[in-house]
Structures are given as C-alpha cells and as structure tokens.
Amino acid sequence: MYMRMNTNEIQQYPALLRQVKQRVLLAQQRAIFAANEELLRMYWDLGQLLYESQQREGWGKGTLTRLSQDMKNEFPKEKGFSVRNFQCMMQFFNEYNQELTSIKNYPHVNCTTICYTVGRLFVARKEFA
C-alpha cells in the first residue's frame, strides 16, 4: 500500500531511489569480489598443498583420482573436485608462485592486489595459450 507523497517528496524521490539502488549494487559487487577473492585463495592454498605434498611424497595421478572421488562423496552438492581441476590448482600454484613471491615482498601490497594480479596473469596466459 502506497502512501500519498507531497510535491516536495515526489521531486526528491527519484534521487533517493537512485541512491538506494546504487548502494545495493555496490554491496552486490563487493560480495562478488569477496567471494572471488576467497575462491582464488582456496585454489592457491589447495594447489600449494597438493603440489608440495606431491613433491615431498612423490605420489601420482592415482592419488588425485582417489582424492577427487573422496571429495565428491564428502561434498556431493559442490563442484570443482575433478582430477583435472586439482591438476589445474597445482599448476596455478606452481606457475605463479615465483611471480607472487616477488610481489609479496612489498609491504604496501595486500591480498586483494595479489589476488587481482594472479587473476589477471591467469587470464592473460589463457588468452594467449
């Protein structure tokens, strides 16, 4: 049910509506960026975990196959636990580890900058591959 607005309210309403919509859109964008940042962190962390474990213990594709099946069983509604995805996570960590190590040495660079840089490098390599 709408209440009647006076003339002054009618004139100011479009600006109010625009401000409210802008704030909602900003919150939505920030939520997307935060989720993407966390996914990049997870991919990086899993890639590091798997890569270092493989280097240390020398396991092969069979371990990734088993890990893939166990993760799919543990998280049946989630996607992204294929052998290929685990291999991509390991490659992601391995390829960008040196580049990120040099970036992390600068105190003014935060995780958002690092995640953005890694994402851009990843996209650039895929575009020219």
Walk me through what this model shows.
This protein has 129 residues and is an all-alpha fold. It has one domain (26-128). It has helices at 7-57, 61-74, 83-104, 111-128. Helix 1 packs across helix 3 and helix 3 crosses helix 4. It is elongated, with a radius of gyration of 23 Å.
Distance between the termini: 57 Å
Q: Beta-strand percentage?
A: under 5%
The best one-word shape is elongated
Using only C-alpha atoms, the radius of gyration works out to 23 Å
The total strand number stands at 0
**Main sheet overview:** none
Number of helices: 4
- Helix-strand sequence: HHHH
Class by SSE composition: mainly alpha
When the domains are counted, the total is 1
Mean pLDDT: 82
Please mark out the parts with pLDDT under 50 across 5 or more consecutive residues, or reply none. Answer: none
Helix coverage percent of residues? Answer: over 70%
Oligomer: single chain
Summarize the structure.
The chain has 4 helices and no strands.
List keywords for this structure.
129 residues; mainly alpha; 81% helix
Topology:
Elements: H1 7-57, H2 61-74, H3 83-104, H4 111-128
Helix pairs in contact: 1-3, 3-4
